[in-house]
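Dear Dr. H.,

I hope your travels went smoothly. While you were away I took the liberty of generating a structure for the chain from your last submission, since the lab meeting agenda had it listed for discussion. I wanted you to have the full record in hand beforehand rather than looking at slides cold. The sequence, exactly as received, is reproduced here:
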Amino acid sequence: MFSIPGGCPQTEIIYSSWNMTVGYVKKSDSNKERMLSPMTTILITGANGQLGSLILENLRSRIPVGQIIAGVRSVEQATFIREQEIEVRKVDYDLPETLNEAFRGISRLLLISSSHTDDNVRLSQHRRVIDAAKRSGVRHILYTGFAFSQRTTDQSKPDNVHTLTEQAIIESGLEYTFLRNALYIDFVGVLGLKEAISSGELVTAPGEWKFNSVGRRDLALAAAAVLAEEGAGNRIYELTAPQTWDFGDLAEVLTEVAGKPVVHRQDDGIQHWIYAFMSKLDTASTSGDLERLMGRPVTPLRDSILLFIV
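The corresponding predicted structure, in token form, is as follows:
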């Protein structure tokens, strides 16, 4: 949900960059759990992936498993899902015939963005899913994009896969919800945190880096909350940490964990693809949507990075 600061304290503004329609939702209702109709069926694509499996885990604790369907590319690799008594259907973004069959009888579809490395291929895959959803009678499509992607895109000429996918969904006429996820906290795994603890220095490329990053578990909890709630579509949620952190904060956390000083230093000689990638994203804008949907604070930075230093 994109919130305009300074507005009426009892409302939040929901809008689309393309149709420029604006709606108002009472904040008192934004966290109120509305029981999902027992007739609603939800399919999650990429359900055996890192994010999808976490969403399934959270969703099955909220609604009957009979209302949940897992869409996977290889059904042979989904034994662990079947063991949870969740129906599994083959969903291959490259095979439209699997999509038509899988989406039959589905009310609400969560499209987890493709992991293909070519954005042109990703967009084609997403469009196949959207077209099949419309043909199959899906009422509401949810999509996991990138947080604040509209701020790094010329809206008159959108050129990134997430903005173009959102545009295609809007143009389909289906009800939509855009779950715009922050950059995964996993990116710290390429920063050499163990080496920083060992040397006492966290060395990064120069820049005024600020991060709204969070972990997949937090994002999955928020996604499950949206999926499990009955309500109107056409909403946008910016799922980020409510405050940014920087490399200085990260060094402080490493100091705390290591029990010895770790300082941050910038070095012009640092070359890594991650910095060019991050420079194209809005990693500094923040929103309270994630915490509102989870009903708790985001996982602290210290807890989020432990996996990458043990």
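Two observations you may find useful: The first helix runs from residue 27 to 30. The two ends are 35 Å apart (CA to CA).

With kind regards,
E. W.
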